[in-house]
User: Fold this.
Amino acid sequence: MMSRADITRRRRGALRLRAHWLCADETQRGPIVDNAATVAGPGTNVAAMDFAIEGKSAHVIDAGSPLGRACAAALAAEGVTLRDEPSGCDIVVASMTDRGGSHSALTEEALEALRVGWEGVVDAVTAYRGALPTMVEHGWGRFVWVGSALAKSIDADDAEIDAITTLGMLGLHKVITSEEAPHNVTSNAVLRGGAATDDDVAAAVAFLCSQGAGYLSGITMTVDGGAGSAVY
Assistant:
């Protein structure tokens, strides 16, 4: 059991770290950045972080797309083996289908756009089903869907199809969470918005696949730099 003095030291450390990151001027952030660079090694600007997933295997749907390549690279950097098929994998990463444009749900093009957009959902469900038996057997698994942050926004405008498909996957994740949590299988989503890059999204995906994220399931992580209007 920690003493009162230990608790006080931890609280002060947390406050210093928070103040460091809230500082707008990077030149005033102090020695924490230097310490992080030391941990990560020369020539780097981020702290090293072990997600404890080395030796795991992953299937990234549409790994040939820019986003898919970024997610695959982020997982490979953590020592994860990439596979072409979901069967036998510990991790499955899926994302929205690129429909080649935006459509409102109430236009004439909406039906075809929804069919194309729903292909990503079907591919994800198929991959999830292929990987789940091994995850349950091993007592460990991670499902991650990359969707649109507009699913939580009141101003989806012409990206309503993306919002619809993402909401469908969020519902599926809640079902998986309720049924597979006892097997240490999690299902979470990264919602992309604003000017988020593929690498920004991939970093969030890798975190949700980590050992430390094992008590997070059925959640969404919005990566939009605070640009969205959603308040939840």
User: Anything to note?
Assistant: Strands lie at 57-60, 81-82, 91-95, 141-148, 185-192, 220-223. The longest strand covers residues 141-148. Residues 51-223 form a domain with the Rossmann fold fold (CATH 3.40.50.720).
